[in-house]
Write a structure and sequence with these properties.
Layout lengths: L5 E16 L4 E17 L3 E5 L6 H8 L7 E6 L2 E2 L5 H7 L3 E4 L13 H11 L5 H14 L16 H13 L5 E5 L7 H18 L2 E5 L3 H7 L2 E6 L2 E7 H6 L4 H8 L6 H6 L30 H5 L5 E2 L8 E3 L4 H4 L1
Helix pairs in contact: 3-4, 3-5, 4-5, 5-6
Length: 333
């Protein structure tokens, strides 16, 4: 079995937001939104990134694209470290890495036509002549299932699902190899969500795209993702293949998340055990010592309270990698 080629390598990524107080605006602390995250994204795959609100998922996606300043860590894209390059170099790289934003209403400029919105990346990167750009915009509209005649309409004339398709077309404009999809379906009606996810999956197969798919909806993540990373309070708790994480979760937090997902079969729903987490998520400005999850974990010991667990690969030889940050993962397997 050949080893897949790595497109994006994130190492010890940190994004801290300073907290200022007083007349002289002295820094008194920091919100550790992302605090030491490491993972790889292979060419042609979809890595699903899941977790509760405020765990750092969206900040991680923004930081990878250098749309959010880093506090520390490395980001290697297609063999090049992009964490330390200047803005002019980063601008050249951005045509290869695009983003689909969460809110299809606020992410489109209401003063621009659809043709202008989709064609803007082509103009910024000086791709093609005006005529070629116009033809490319019409081609992109066809790709995402919209009428090319809509090119001169404005965002307010479209529904939420249509606006998200316009956002997808804009992300595809420069033929990128990597796309961060930041909760692209959370603001859409349930009836439209499946259509958008299927469109993303079809485009991935057609153009060989690589996705970081950030979402809350675990059923959608299981449907579209090849591998899944679970985040909690700024750290990755578990990372593995879709089937490993959903069918054989090793971290107590992952188990709790999956137990909250409704099951369509009434008999299975009644028979399964629900895991109810006690307490609230700690503040990222003052995270607990040791394992971030230990205040809410039923299996926590003194070791969990004192020592930060390393992200370890617990898969056996010849099987897909399954990483988990838990001192007692072997006992829970």
């Amino acid at each position: 079995m050949s080893t897949p080629s790595t497109l994006v390598q994130v190492t010890d990524l940190k994004v801290h937001f300073p907290i200022y107080q007083g007349v002289f605006r002295r820094q008194v602390g920091a919100i550790k939104a992302v605090d030491g995250v490491s993972f790889s994204i292979y060419k042609g795959e979809t890595l699903g990134l899941v977790g509760e609100s405020g765990c750092g998922k969206s900040t991680t996606g923004l930081a990878i694209l250098q749309l959010q300043a880093l506090t520390g860590g490395q980001i290697n894209f297609n063999g090049q470290d992009i964490a330390g390059i200047d803005e002019s170099q980063m601008r050249k790289m951005r045509r290869h890495m695009m983003m689909i934003f969460q809110d299809p209403y606020s992410s489109l400029n209401p003063r621009m036509t659809i043709g202008g919105i989709i064609g803007e990346p082509l103009s910024v990167h000086q791709i093609g002549t005006p005529q070629e750009r116009a033809e490319r915009v019409q081609e992109l509209l066809r790709l995402v299932g919209l009428n090319p005649a809509f090119i001169n309409r404005y965002p307010h004339e479209f529904s939420g699902g249509q606006r998200q398709r316009i956002g997808i077309a804009r992300a595809l404009a420069t033929n990128p190899s990597f796309i961060v999809a930041d909760e692209p379906i959370s603001a859409l009606d349930v009836s439209i969500q499946a259509q958008v996810v299927n469109l993303l999956d079809d485009l991935k197969k057609q153009f060989g795209l690589t996705y970081l798919f950030i979402a809350h909806d675990l059923s959608m993540v299981r449907y579209i993702s090849d591998r899944v990373a679970v985040m909690y309070l700024g750290k990755v708790m578990e990372l593995g293949s879709r089937n490993n994480v959903f069918d054989s979760p090793l971290h107590p937090y992952t188990r709790a998340l999956l137990s909250a997902v409704p099951v369509a079969n009434p008999k299975k729903e009644r028979a399964r055990q629900r895991i109810i987490l006690e307490g609230d998520v700690p503040s990222p400005a003052n995270p607990p010592a040791g394992c971030r999850f230990h205040p809410r974990c039923a299996f926590a010991t003194q070791e969990c309270r004192a020592q930060v667990p390393e992200l370890r690969n617990l898969s056996t030889q010849g099987k897909p990698e399954h990483w988990v940050a838990c001192h007692h993962a072997e006992k829970l397997a």
